[in-house]
Design goal:
alpha/beta, 19 helices, 15 strands, globular
């Protein structure tokens, strides 16, 4: 019995060696070569130790020579002389209808204080009470002991003002839209976006890692061509198309151009090609429409046709921060996916109180909006008559952009001419500014321009003074 078991084991061993031999014979040469190299490498690692390199200590003279020859690269690229970060004006004292700019007393038409609420006494008093009650900071994100009751009150008030279901509050206006976009749009999703969107929107697009399709500025026909191309691709790839979400992103009033989005046509395309529509109302919130409810009220369209609206508290409401508003189904998603909401300290309570008080004021004074819009139209028409300048923004925009009628083609030279006009206006008592664009970072390059912001607290005589000051400055310099 034992001998038969031993014989069977011997035969099995012979068969295994035979199979190994046959596999060796049939294996390709490159396979054997690789295995041989691996075996030799393992042997080397086991039996041959690497000789320790002898450390050669440098003398003091050699160390000084090495240090002298070392030329480190800069941590950041050198800043050009015309970079906006290195050239700025300085305001002394409180900001209001008049400001002290570079030691000149000026009518403020440079800051985006559209409702004229900067320095408002009622807001100041409410804010000081808030400091005594809540202190000066929140010291935590909204989800980690950073939510204060005034945050919830402000979100509720903003939802009511915009006639939407709910709102989510951010502590910084720039981060509102730049966090909202990547909260919804992910890799492989498609975003149709106007080529002139602001830098904040561009940062959101980058963070989303989606497929970005830019269409010409306010060109609905070009947008539809892109949507048709996408529709054709979807029909050719139905399985992949089911996994792709499609978004359309525009601004109510474009920060870089002052033009209005053609919202009725965009909404028609939204339903025709089944995309989600996001609007950044940084400039149109509390400026456009009979009651300041933004670009949707201006065009008379239903706010339910817009999936998400983003805006800032830093212009018309004279505070800090931003918000997104819309349906609960859409907006609440940001409380877990909006990076600036989840990871940044919440808005200081005193600033939330300032925004609530400002919202109370504009709701009680709807005439502010009609006055702002009347002044915008008046300034647009009269400045358009000034020889040497061209108004490139829309007539209803609260921000006017003025370019040279005869551009030289040299950006630096054109910018220098406009800056000279601005400096002359400041010396005569009107604060303006050259529009600041990060040329090396923006998606689109723009002609140099002067930016003029209209304020609701201006009187007609103030507007006429600004127009005449600009006219005489242009005549003297051009």
């Amino acid at each position: 019995m034992a001998s038969s078991i031993n014989a069977a084991g011997y035969e099995s061993l012979q068969w295994q060696f035979y199979e190994l031999y046959r596999a060796f014979r049939e294996a390709p040469f490159y396979h054997l070569a690789i295995e041989a190299c691996l075996v030799l490498w393992i042997i080397k690692l086991i039996f041959f130790t690497r000789k320790k390199q002898q450390n050669h200590e440098l003398t003091e003279e050699e160390q000084d020579e090495v240090i002298a020859d070392w030329n480190p690269e800069p941590l950041v690229p050198p800043m050009s002389e015309d970079n906006p970060a290195s050239n700025y004006s300085v305001i002394s004292g409180k900001t209001g209808k008049y400001i002290t700019l570079n030691e000149y007393e000026c009518l403020d038409m440079a800051s985006m204080n559209f409702m004229g609420l900067m320095g408002n006494h009622e807001i100041e008093e409410a804010t000081m009470e808030g400091v005594r009650k809540y202190g000066v900071g929140s010291c935590g994100p909204r989800g980690f002991y950073g939510t204060v009751d005034v945050h919830l009150e402000l979100e509720k008030r903003l939802s009511g003002f915009m006639e939407c279901e709910t709102s989510v509050l951010y502590s910084y206006g720039f981060s509102s839209i730049s966090s909202a976009i990547p909260a919804y749009s992910k890799r492989n999703d498609v975003i149709f976006v106007d080529e002139a969107v602001s830098f904040a929107v561009q940062k959101g697009l980058e963070a989303s890692r989606s497929l970005i399709k830019y269409f010409k500025h306010c060109d609905v026909a070009d947008l539809e061509n892109l949507m048709i191309e996408q529709d054709v691709w979807d029909k050719k790839n139905p399985k992949k198309a089911k996994l792709i979400r499609r978004f359309l992103i525009v601004e109510g009033v474009f920060m870089n151009t002052g033009r209005l989005a053609p919202l009725p046509e965009l909404i028609a395309l939204k339903y025709k090609y089944k995309v989600r529509l996001f609007i950044d109302e940084t400039l149109s919130f509390a400026t456009m429409g009979a009651s300041g409810r933004g670009i949707t009220e201006h065009w008379g369209v239903d706010r339910a046709d817009v999936d998400l609206i983003s805006a800032t508290l830093e212009n018309s409401l004279a505070s800090v921060g931003g918000f997104c508003t819309g349906t609960s189904y859409v907006v609440e998603h940001q409380r877990l996916s909006g990076q600036a909401y989840c990871f940044s300290a919440s808005l200081p309570p005193l600033l939330a109180i300032a925004a609530i008080k400002a919202l109370n004021i504009v709701e009680d004074h709807p005439e502010y909006f009609s006055n702002l819009q009347m002044l915008s139209k008046h300034l647009y028409e009269k400045i358009g008559e000034i020889e040497g300048l061209t108004v490139t923004s829309d007539i209803a925009s609260p921000v006017l952009y003025l370019t040279l009628q005869h551009l030289t083609g040299n950006t630096s030279e054109d910018k220098a001419k406009l800056q000279a006009i601005v400096d002359k206006c400041i010396s005569k008592g009107v604060a303006l500014t050259v529009a600041r664009i990060l040329d090396d970072a923006e998606h689109l390059c723009y002609n140099p321009s002067i930016r003029l912001a209209v304020h609701a607290d201006l009187e007609m005589k103030d507007a006429d003074f600004a127009i005449e000051t600009l006219r005489t400055s242009v005549q003297e310099l051009l």
